Amino acid sequence: MTTSSRDVVIVGGGPAGCAVGVCIARYGLDAVIFDRGNSSLRRCAFLENYLGFPAGIDIETFYKLMHDHAVEAGCDLVSDMVESVERTDGNFRVRTQDGRSVLVPRVVAATTHDGEYLRGLDSDEVMFDTHEHHGEVHEEFDREYADADGRTSVDGLYVAGGLAGHGEQVLVAAGHGMTVGRELLADVRCEEGYWEEAAPHYDWLRRRAALDYDWDDEDTWNRRFADHRVADDHDIEQERLQRIRQREIEYVKSTHIGRSEIDNRRERAQRRLATHLDEELLLEVIDDDRLQEYVAEQAETTESDGRNIPD
């Protein structure tokens, strides 16, 4: 059995796991999502209350969209089941059903029900609950084992979604996944030298036209960083402060995009979304006159291109 190394293993590719993956992979962490097993969401007949789908969405298409988004963000999505997570030399060794072994400093448990693969990372009395059902004693993962942000008493272990008691609704699970992802990133950034006020990461694109000060005014950039990211009574050494400030200002500048870039992203996003939709239904909802107009435009373009081809 060969062992690979990653930054994060996410167990479960449902709404919570994919939300964590999108969050941390966009930051640049090397994340793998293992997704195989009993999915509670796949037992749903049709999803009607997820924001952004006014008439609802079928589960198959929703899964394809989630997984496509996670992969686009930079995650590896692997169809394999995690069987165990063990502590080893300050890291975790994740073993899967198909014989994979992954060494990581952080694991996110984002399955809905089964937490058996986590057994042994903490005492059973703390990690699992027992209850009686129809005269039989059952043991299950304690939904209150992690705190509200998904952190646990095991350093590097996070719990998101249903296993953390946030699986009642798909949108709730996805939101909790993003919360856990941001908390994980804050912990990573603290290890990178960030302090408490600077640790939260904001993944947000801004309109450059809305910038209310000169782009090249470094004093203003520095002042804004100090106002929002540095406590008045800080005792941060100067070299560390300068390094983090420069890194953050460069990042914030990179998140400002212009009109043409916004338009390009809009077109690309809608094209990507269209690949997940039924072609016949798309043709049905498009106005017939517009379809005929489009066909004529394409024919003219083809003829024009043909005339310009040299003999």
Task: Calculate Rg over CA atoms.
Answer: 24 Å
N- to C-terminal distance: 60 Å
The CATH topology of the largest domain: FAD/NAD(P)-binding domain
Strand content: 15-25%
Overall number of domains: 3
Would you mind describing this structure in some detail?
The radius of gyration is 24 Å and the shape is globular. It folds into three domains: 3-191, FAD/NAD(P)-binding domain (3-Layer(bba) Sandwich); 197-277, no CATH class; 281-311. The relative contact order is 0.11. The N and C termini lie far apart (60 Å). It has helices spanning 15-27, 59-73, 124-127, 170-191, 218-229, 238-254, 259-274, 279-285, 288-307, and strands at residues 3-5, 8-11, 31-34, 76-78, 82-88, 91-96, 101-104, 106-109, 128-133, 136-141, 157-159, 206-207, 256-257. Helix 1 runs parallel beside helix 2 and helix 1 runs parallel beside helix 4. It has nine helices and 13 strands. With 311 residues, it is an alpha/beta fold. The strands form four sheets. A five-stranded parallel beta sheet has the order 4-3-2-8-11, with helices on one face. The chain has a four-stranded mixed beta sheet with strand order 1-7-6-5, with no helix packed on it. The mean pLDDT is 94.
